[in-house]
Design brief:
single chain, two-stranded antiparallel ribbon, 6 strands
């Protein structure tokens, strides 16, 4: 029932997302030519105001990492995760100067992307194409990351009803559906819906989780300071190496990168004027306050769901809410997280399409006047490649884990067989003498005692086997009343030993004897002996036929 409700909520919002993205182009003129069409599609006709630029650029920065990675870093390390807030705020400050400069240059020369500006500034079209190829190589993993993040979120909030592969395809289909048609303007409209949901859901969680699990912020912060103080200072929990030097250098380098990132430049070029970018640079740091919520909830998960390791720690936020909130609320939170993947993914795909349509494929004479169509085709191709990369990564990860488990199980089974052959039938762990938990051995009195050391255990096994061999030799040396050798117990095959029959006169005259264990086995004929093995038959002599003299193994075989 919960899965059906959450999945229905998610499906309704995805339909609304596609419809909103498609309606963004309603009533917009296409432009006089192909160049005008590309400018309208790639940079929104340079007509976006302060609100649209603010939600668009905030959407680029607030990705699925905010719901998954920020909470996971808060869970694993603590204070070092604040580098995200530091570098983004510093980058916005630099954008106050860089953004208007790039916007003015691009508007003056009719440019629509960072590769377009590189080619125009240096007068080398091939240089713009080279930058486009290199940027594409490094942007495709970002798209793959957003597809993977949305897949994990959707599979979690649907209570496993939607598989990862289907979630990956939904992310690709929804994003491609409105980006190809509406371009940057469609991404801006979807960003409005995304930011409304993000602000509402994170504001609710910031109040709900501390009250529900800790009876308020006071007890929560008191426990955090008392029990998890290592998470509140650098370098955080564990030997992560994320100290103050790392924090300063990482924040500085990332702030320089984010200000000229291809997707950030696309947001600059979509503004109506330079003042919009300056106001945007002043207001964007306020959006970063929301980043503190998943970081704090990640540390709250330390007390609620302890023991998360590896990739599971990225789901710390959702593990707090999936079991404690109604299904419809879980669905809404999942939609907010999914849109946090869709919006940046849409801008990434749009930028790749614009770079190739304007700087690479335009070098082909037949495609020079079809730049918009070529760019839209590249958008679809980039989405398909990222989708394949995400599915391949998932298959490798899910394939390696069962393979590793199978190897461990085979090794354990082989070890059990060796132990069973050397010690006899293994005892159940609950039986006296059986192997208990954590290397402890159950003694006859029922008390758990430390296991015998391996070297001493091997010595005991060796002496046990020697005693068995001595007993077997003693048993083979016994004779019955008729002077025949006898052995007690079953045959080697495990079957009951057959009754002894009196030897015939012919057999007595030939001095032949049955095998020592009374089963079909080695028989002595006229001084030679045939070995009895599972792969060979016994060498028998038919009455009335003479065995070959002086020839080992030369008798007739039946």
């Amino acid at each position: 029932m919960n899965a059906a409700v959450a999945t229905s909520v998610f499906g309704v919002f995805m339909v609304v997302t596609v419809a909103l993205g498609l309606l963004a182009m309603r009533g917009r003129r296409r432009g006089s030519g192909e160049g005008g069409g590309l400018a309208e599609w790639s940079v929104g006709g340079r007509s976006l105001g302060t609100v649209f630029i603010w939600v668009l650029m905030a959407g680029e920065g607030y990705t699925s990492f905010s719901y998954l990675g920020a909470a996971g870093w808060g869970y694993n390390y603590g204070a070092p995760v604040l580098y995200v807030v530091a570098y983004m705020s510093c980058g916005y400050a630099l954008g106050y100067v860089v953004g208007p400069t790039l916007w003015a240059y691009a508007r003056k020369h009719g440019l629509v992307g960072i590769t377009d500006m590189v080619a125009h500034r240096f007068g080398r079209p091939w240089l713009g194409a080279l930058v486009a190829v290199i940027a594409t190589v490094f942007l495709l993993p970002y798209i793959q990351l957003q597809i993977t993040g949305m897949g994990v979120v959707v599979s979690t909030i649907s209570y496993g009803a939607i598989s990862l592969n289907w979630a990956y395809f939904i992310a690709f289909a929804v994003t491609t559906g409105f980006v190809v048609v509406s371009g940057l303007r469609g991404s801006a409209w979807v960003s409005v819906l995304k930011d409304i949901l993000v602000i509402a859901t994170l504001g609710f969680l910031a109040i709900y989780v501390p009250i529900h699990y800790f009876d308020g912020y006071g007890p929560f912060l008191d426990r955090l300071v008392t029990e998890k103080s290592q998470w509140l200072t650098f370098p955080g929990h564990g030997d992560s190496g994320l100290g103050q030097a790392w924090f300063i250098t990482t924040s500085f380098l990332n702030s320089l990168t984010v200000v000229i990132f291809p997707t950030t430049v696309a947001g600059y070029l979509g503004a109506k004027n330079a003042d919009v970018l300056r106001r945007n640079a002043m207001w964007l740091p306020a959006y970063n306050v929301l980043l503190f919520v998943p970081m704090l909830l990640g540390m709250a998960a330390l007390f609620v769901v302890p023991g998360l390791v590896g990739a599971e720690s990225n789901l710390a936020l959702f593990k707090l809410v999936v079991d404690s909130l109604p299904a419809w609320a879980v669905g809404v939170i999942g939609v907010a997280a999914a849109l946090s993947s869709i919006v940046p993914m849409a801008v990434f795909m749009l930028v790749i399409g614009t770079m190739w349509g304007r700087s690479v494929l335009s070098l082909v004479p037949r495609l020079e006047r079809r730049q918009k169509g070529a760019a839209q085709t590249v958008v679809v191709a980039a989405g398909v490649i990222a989708l394949v990369l995400a599915e391949e990564a998932d298959h490798r990860q899910t394939g390696e884990q069962p393979a590793g488990r199978r190897r461990q199980e085979r090794a354990a089974a082989q070890q059990r067989q060796i132990d069973q052959r050397s010690r006899g039938p293994a005892l159940h762990r609950d039986e006296p003498g059986g192997q208990g938990h954590r290397g402890e051995q159950q003694q006859p009195d029922g008390c758990a005692q430390p296991a015998v050391p391996a070297e001493r255990q091997r010595g005991q096994q060796r002496r046990h086997r020697q005693a068995e061999r001595r007993a077997a030799r003693t048993a083979r040396g016994r004779r019955d009343a008729a002077g025949r050798r006898t052995r007690s117990g079953p045959c080697r095959s495990g079957q009951p030993r057959p009754a002894r029959a009196a030897p015939t006169a012919a057999a007595a005259g030939d001095r032949s004897r049955l095998s020592a264990d009374g089963c079909a086995g080695p028989i002595v004929y006229n001084g030679w002996r045939a070995e009895r093995t599972p792969a060979r038959k016994a060498w028998l002599r038919e009455p009335g036929r003479q065995a070959a003299k002086g020839k080992k193994g030369g008798a007739d075989e039946w």
